[in-house]
Amino acid sequence: MQNAKVYVIDDDPAMRDSLDFLLGSAGFVVRLFESAQIFLNELPDLAAGCVVTDIRMPGIDGMELLRQLNLASRKLPVIVMTGHGDVPLAVEAMKLGALDFLEKPFEDDRLIGMIETALSQSDSGAKSEAVSADMAARVASLTPRERQVMQGLVTGLSNKAIARDYDISPRTVEVYRANVMTKMQAGNLSELVRFAIRAGIVED
């Protein structure tokens, strides 16, 4: 992955500088953009690479950027960052084609790992049916109640709201939630959202 291109889009200069240093140190070739519009203007001339974009920006925000990239002939993998832990937004971003969703502040290694995964998937053109079948098998291992809890989680409901919906205690929801994360092999909520979309639990 040395010398792979990463395009960072964020209206916060401090965040751009921080990512420039982090990703440059990891061996990526980084280009910084202060707005999605500037990035889109230059898109036709950019080499293949991975896009890392903030979601809340003036002008064209991360969601609109994803929509415009879907219309473009160039298909670049996109990782979305946000400072607002907003799961419904994550679901929408992934439906629009984002590969992953990262809440600020995040661990440096997690972002680097995501970018490496995005670039390797892009290289192999990998949208493998085997992956979807694997996700479906994981979902099939869930009990009906675990599946209900997962549906609540990926639509942005809190443990308390899920508990209210199904007339169970929040503590019981926590147990189901832990089971769901284990069976789905999800390390965090954004992974669970992505897996649920791949498995068809969340409608595209």
Automatic annotation (TrEMBL):
Which residues does the UniProt record annotate as the domain HTH luxR-type? 135-200
Protein name per UniProt: Two component transcriptional regulator, LuxR family
| Molecular function via GO | DNA binding
InterPro entries in the record, alphabetically? CheY-like_superfamily (IPR011006), Sig_transdc_resp-reg_C-effctor (IPR016032), Sig_transdc_resp-reg_receiver (IPR001789), Tscrpt_reg_LuxR_C (IPR000792), WH-like_DNA-bd_sf (IPR036388)
Upper classification of the source organism reads: Bacteria, Pseudomonadati, Pseudomonadota, Alphaproteobacteria, Hyphomicrobiales
One Pfam family this sequence matches = GerE
Start and end of every Response regulatory domain?
A: 5-119
SUPFAM superfamilies under this entry?
C-terminal effector domain of the bipartite response regulators, CheY-like
What is an annotated GO biological process for this record, any one?
Answer: phosphorelay signal transduction system
Family matches, as Gene3D superfamilies: 3.40.50.2300, Winged helix-like DNA-binding domain superfamily/Winged helix DNA-binding domain
Alphabetic keyword roster: DNA-binding, Phosphoprotein, Transcription, Transcription regulation, Two-component regulatory system
Residue positions, PTM 4-aspartylphosphate: D54
Organism, per UniProt? Bradyrhizobium lablabi
